[in-house]
UniProtKB/TrEMBL annotation, chains A, B, C:
Belongs to the glycosyl hydrolase 42 family. This is Beta-galactosidase. It comes from Bianquea renquensis. Zn(2+) binds at C117, C160, C162, C165. It catalyses: Hydrolysis of terminal non-reducing beta-D-galactose residues in beta-D-galactosides. Coiled coil: none annotated. Its EC number is 3.2.1.23.
């Protein structure tokens, strides 16, 4: 897609390109095939530090200029990556301590990626230098439409245990807790005589059965170290670069993407979901959309399969690439980029799915890529002139992600999996398009707010803002396992919840684990209700009760499992268990009805994205490779087929419909 | 329960209480709720070293006196724990080598429990000092009815590999074997040229494929180190304290509880069994009862579920707490104590089941705890005035536990699991109450002795005593996998058994592994017999044969699997395989009939504990949450219901009956 | 078996014997039982270094002479082992660095086997010395019929990471690649900025996500280190010894047995297969036969089960020992030896199956051993006067084994398992006796060659020789996953195959992973065809196509999965997937028909070994314990039964037939 000046315009269809790993003479062929495929943007540069700086302080960018220029001449825009994920061997030789260490003090070897510690000053120094050199060289290059800092930076496993990381951890604790006694008391360290006399005595979370508060703070600090490292690069780039700067992230291990993108201009995001969990990407897109004004970029996804030296996946059903390529665009992004343009011929990842095989031959998916390019072209104006519009919100926060990772209340409860399967999927399958929001997000635009698994609400004043929003008329669906810990991960000592009882007047009695079917619940209308893993029991009047316990223990049979309390002009529905898919859809319907939010127009697995702007419409995505349908509220035109539609619109498996309201 | 002087009397209902982890003002509330629940004993102090000795040599017991006094004033007795399981951070700072090390030399961090090595001299010195200070302070306190040394002390995993442990290992070997050549020959160390030239050359069992004899001795010594550490504390306490001193143990990893309790006055025992394996606690109670004259204390068990930061269990069926709380009392103990009174509000174990939730609200199980307190009160005199009476014994020894852990003969054979499931359960389900005895126990009181999985009988002269006991008329059910190793874990070289052939005249031919059903056996009456994992084949005459092989290999079809030999006035039944549950019950019945021991009055899973003393009776426990029954031999009164019973007494699921013989 | 001079003659029936681990007085009994069992050869010495050299440089062979002499006097021949697998403790004391190290630098402890590093100079020095001493002592001993160097020497796991190994790795790389830039380019090390500036900078494959080329070279060098160590011993022995010298190997971890046996006179081989995978031994025998002129020795196999301190197996079906003992003889060997003669009474492996139990009593298998001895005796002349004769070959190479271990293309693809199950078994069940050949083997004798999973053909000029052989009329069945990597494990950049397209003119389009059944294939006659894990798609004309795709993706439905191309006088059949058992048999039949090779005379699991020489015949082995049959082409005499047979010969489960053509 290009504008009238010949500049590439969104929505972008891109691919990661590593010409430095190939003979120079391959470039013309590759570019000709990119044109044929409909690729408009190439992501380059991210792992080529050694080629840019073959010896310390000696830079060579001529080869890279040539690549950028050749792409530009061919009308292909460039996203330029800083190569800090792959420091050259000479850096490790100069400073052997620059690498990450595991808990046993074993150092990571050169030979992979991200082997240097983000807190290491020498690594930071050399990273800053190469970034500044690149920025000077390419800051004004018109072919470059955006920058990418580093690559998929996050704390792997438990992170790095090097002395710099331990020091940073201690400094963070001192900054947060002020005095060591405050920390000791906050973490209840009389318990087990753990009491520390100084911040620097606090160990990293290894080689002992550590308390969950220490483990939580460690995770938070490990992620912050990477945020700091990215911010350092952003500050350098911003001095030279005038196009958006981002960092391509991966949804792993509790990274806080609001923090990560604070100093950046754009959210860049990589995902490698597969048919079974494709909808989990939608949760991320619904979240990323809320972080920046600028539409996000899906910087990496696979055309067909993942693999380094071995493929563990099967061929994806035909049409999957269409849905996978459209989802980020439909949900508020402006780019979809494949990893990788052409499979590496040697080294790592030499069997990864791509657009071209390492032989240069098109992969079987090539035609599907062309179709995506065509469909983008047909709808580009509509995409650019509209934004996603929604009335409901759905909570997700990194603090709670990390808190569940360090204390999951019931075992085998994965925060992300449960959030996706038990809560998010029923919401989107109800025909809703939620904003997925974190604690910082303003609530005023929403009529319904879902807050499951928000173990703590003590984050960025959220508690106060929710209180006001409910008083003003919001419908808040909260729980299970929400508001049960303070910001350190400690329990409340006189009430089970931080403020839910005070807000609603409800009274919690018991929390009950069960995965053997000993507990049973019933809706007021007599329908059986099946929860999972955890049950909160409330002592509540029948008029405020939606579902009661029918089996479990005589101490709580007849008591309430789901309650609904009027608060000011609003309503609070407390869900006392992890509901089944159907029961969660029932809760969604009840809460939307209360709030006057339209729902239930989807049949099957049809995801809807309402679009508003200078034009109006909606995008439908059948995401389960099965027939689906959507009940249109008015006559619309399908911009992909040209057909006019109204009433019940049937969608074929993996069909996309881009629908514009007729005037 | 209190006596006429207002002193708390057994049976005790107790709970672990950590007031040092809570604001002082919570204590009155907690105590009022203890009174309401019927709790008569609080276990305190065990993890509070830092609070008692905030700096090296500076002690503060004022706060602890206040707690003891407040409890005492409320009529709640105290069990005082020494806090040596949780040394303060300053000890590790002063002596960084005081902590345990893994096989790679990695040191355990501060932050959990039991991180210091029981063999470390500095740790021992500071432990002795805090224990002596506590003993001086509280030795005469009338509220304290017992002391507990440390907490759940045992060798975790392979134990500690620090230099002190390695030295202790070498000293133990020298003491046991005398000369290095004796060790080399005993362990057959010409094999693989392993021959050592000095004791100090012998490695810890890591980083090589080690022989089983070395591994066995290491396990034994690791446990002994903890026994020594406890003994050191006991000697200090005994100088100041006049109530029983014990240590609360966990049934893990081959610890020898006879050794452990030798220097102590009382057996204290923690267990966290669940419905499916509750009967395994009974084996322990049947064993612990034999170790000391004083009735044992069940110092820890859960009211409802375990959990540190995550609960892996489900709500237990109603009534489980009754059975779990009654079992130690019925089987010869005088205390049942819950862990924990009130769930921690932060730190470790903040989701563990308790009596009060961390909010202070009663857990759903609160009423069940009250019921237990009531039932203890109704029967307290009967419990105190009677002892468990039995005619049968069942072997269990720590040496064999450790030997199976280091050479299990057939893979996936867990000594404890097989002992419980394949042998102990059929015995107790036959309506027998066995003493579970180790090698040291006198045999003269028993008519039947079961010795399965007694890999070695070379322990404390057991062989000689069994020989005499059988000659005098005992019925000995022995095997499988018994008497097949000497005390070092070596095989015999000319006979398969150490003395079974010599004792009985039987002749062993083959030992056959099978878990694919290739081997089949038949009782003499033609019933099929199904063994498991291992089969011994005997060349035995039909008149001494109870079961023969019908499938497997022509070398042994028609040969004998279970044989019965008259020896002196007694009988030896050698069981050549791990029998099924039903076949083991058949063996139990045969042997009891031979010995004139009454059996078979139970139906279902009803455990019986005959009680004799100044009054007589029995206690029945339905332990499987299913209907059961027991055929009474005479008219009795159920002290819990007041009803008079005779003949077939039906028990409801999880019912307890405390029955006294009518005069 | 003895010749007319009283010397023991092949086929040998032997057992490993460790008299040094037993009292001297046991030897007479053991030898009398060997005679009874029919054992003609004892393997001794292999682990007795400490007894031979109790102190550094002090040798004692008197005891060993006595053993050899006593065996010799009893008419039992000896295979003498060098004891270098078990260095004495004093060596580790003198040189603590002599032991292997893991990736974390943790040293292996004394206490097992093979704990010293084959690259360590001190270990080599002392090994050379003990071997030379032994050679001098026993080089002319007439009782000794062969020597065995060390025992089961191979790289365990990832091998040794000690400094000597790292240095050897760097030297190997320098020798192979010449310059570091050549290595950097060959491994595509611009990728991830991995570029090395010197060979000594290259890390061992640990503590990073390493590239597959580095991992491949490490594996190759680790194995070469052991080959060098064995060669060093062979050179010493050859100066003194006049009987065949070998080393008893285990089929593990990519060892190259051609390299290993290059400096040796004979192939010695240990295996411990069980009924389910017994045929996998046949692949090894078919391979080992091709390495040396001298018939190989099966130096170790179990009579009944394996076990060190625990047995994980079940009793084997009766007759299994017959088949297991006959297979090496039938397939070209001249010895079958059991491990172990008499189970160790202590130390390691004290529950291993044997001929005598540690008690000295015969195991249940004793009669089966006697039967084997009898059957060898009846057929010995025929065995000695004939050799295995075959017209087909089947590729297996260590380079490809190692390459699949470092990059398996699709996950969970084990080279050896897939080779055995999906390719080798259908070949032998088609009544063929293949030579299993590596890349060095001359092809001219064969009419059909199977080359599945030959990831690289760039080995020892194989590509050129295959090209010529096909031109000359050979029928080559190649693929899947063959010819897709160069010798470094890199992909080709312009064609998928190294030379298959050039050779045949075929055109590869796509490679597709699938394990969910999304891809389907059909034979030309309409039969459904089921492949596994991987599918190659060819753009091929119908006349050259044997099977086409019917499901998967519209990009390749109707394209070809198996193609057949005429090349010169020969034919190339490219198999694009891992076929099912039945489909592979179909491919075998088609290719044999094309080549005029007889096939299909077997029914069930009857393995055939045609024998040619001064007499002619064949040996049949029913190897699945089920009825089978073979269609004889002429009248023959069964040397085991004396019966004359013709036409369809039925074999009972586990029956052996040694058939000689009647004149």
């Amino acid at each position: 897609m290009k504008d009238k000046n010949g500049n590439v315009q969104p929505p972008y269809l891109g691919a990661a390109y590593y010409p430095e790993d190939w003979p120079e003479e391959e470039m013309d062929y590759d570019i000709s095939m990119m044109k044929k495929a409909g690729i408009t943007v190439a992501r380059i540069g991210e792992f080529a530090w050694h080629k840019m700086e073959p010896e310390p302080g000696t830079y060579d960018f001529a080869w890279l200029h040539k690549i950028v220029d050749t792409l530009g001449e061919a009308g292909i825009a460039v996203v330029m990556g800083t190569p800090t994920a792959t420091p050259p061997r000479w850096l490790i030789k100069l400073y052997p301590d620059v690498v990450t260490q595991n808990a046993d003090g074993v150092k990571t070897n050169h030979g992979g990626r991200r082997h240097c510690c983000s807190n290491n000053p020498e690594y930071r120094k050399y990273s800053a230098a190469i970034v500044e050199q690149m920025a000077k060289e390419f800051g004004d290059d018109p072919t470059i439409i955006g920058w990418q800092i580093d690559n998929e930076i996050y704390a792997s496993g438990d992170g790095c245990f090097c002395p710099h990381c331990q020091k940073a951890f201690h400094e963070k604790l001192e900054q947060k807790y002020g005095t060591i006694d405050h920390l000791n008391r906050s973490w209840n360290l009389n318990l087990f005589s753990q009491w520390y006399d100084a911040f620097e005595e606090i160990p990293a979370p290894c080689h002992a059965w550590h308390n969950p508060h220490l483990m939580l703070e460690w995770r938070i600090k490990q992620n912050e170290s990477h945020v700091d490292f990215v911010r350092m690069q952003a500050e350098i780039l911003h001095a030279y670069v005038h196009v958006p700067v981002g960092t391509d992230t991966m949804p792993f291990n509790g990274m806080d993407y609001r923090d990560m993108t604070e100093a950046l201009d754009i959210v860049q995001f990589n995902h490698y979901n597969v048919p079974d969990n494709l909808y989990c990407s939608a949760l991320w897109f619904d979240y990323l959309r809320t972080l920046k004004e600028h539409p996000f970029w899906n910087t990496e996804t696979a055309t067909c399969w993942n693999g380094s030296t071995a493929i563990g996946q099967s061929i994806k059903p035909e049409g999957y690439n269409r849905v996978n390529s459209w989802m980020p665009i439909a949900l508020g992004g402006e780019a979809n980029m494949y990893w990788i343009w052409r499979t590496h011929w040697a080294g790592h990842e030499l069997v990864h799915g791509s657009v071209l095989d390492s032989t240069g031959r098109p992969m079987h998916i090539f035609g599907e890529v062309q179709d995506v390019a065509d469909s983008y072209a047909k709808t580009a104006d509509f995409i650019r002139e509209t934004r996603v519009a929604t009335e409901v919100a759905f909570h997700f926060t990194s603090l709670n992600w990390n808190m569940f990772s360090t204390q999951s209340v019931v075992s085998d409860l994965s925060y992300m999996d449960t959030l996706n399967q038990s809560f998010y999927k029923p919401v989107i399958d109800s025909g809703l398009r939620p904003d997925v929001i974190d604690a910082a997000q303003d609530l005023s635009a929403y009529k319904v707010l879902f807050s499951p698994l928000m173990m703590t609400l003590e984050e960025k004043g959220l508690e106060t803002r929710i209180r006001q929003w409910v008083q003003d008329g919001g419908v808040w669906v909260v729980g299970p396992l929400s508001d049960i810990r303070n910001s350190y991960g400690a329990r409340y000592t006189h009430e089970y919840f931080g403020f839910l009882e005070k807000l609603t007047g409800a009274r919690w009695m018991y929390g009950i684990p069960d995965r053997e079917g000993r507990v049973a619940v019933q809706w007021n209308d007599g329908d059986a209700f099946h929860g999972d893993k955890w049950y909160d029991v409330f002592d509540e009047s029948p008029e405020n009760t939606l579902a009661v316990y029918t089996e479990g223990h005589s101490a709580f049979i007849g008591k309430s499992a789901i309650i609904s309390r009027t608060v000011g002009k609003g309503r609070v529905i407390i869900v006392g268990t992890i509901p089944s898919y159907d029961d969660m859809k029932r809760i969604v319907a009840m809460s939307c009805d209360l709030a006057g939010v339209e729902h239930g127009r989807s049949e099957g697995s049809v995801m809807v994205s309402p679009r508003r702007g200078s034009r109006n419409g909606l995008i439908l995505i059948e995401y389960a490779n099965a027939p689906g349908a959507y009940e249109l509220s008015r006559e619309m035109k399908n911009l992909l087929t040209g057909a006019t539609c109204s009433g019940r619109l049937e969608l074929a498996p993996y069909e996309i419909a881009v629908l514009e309201e007729l005037p």
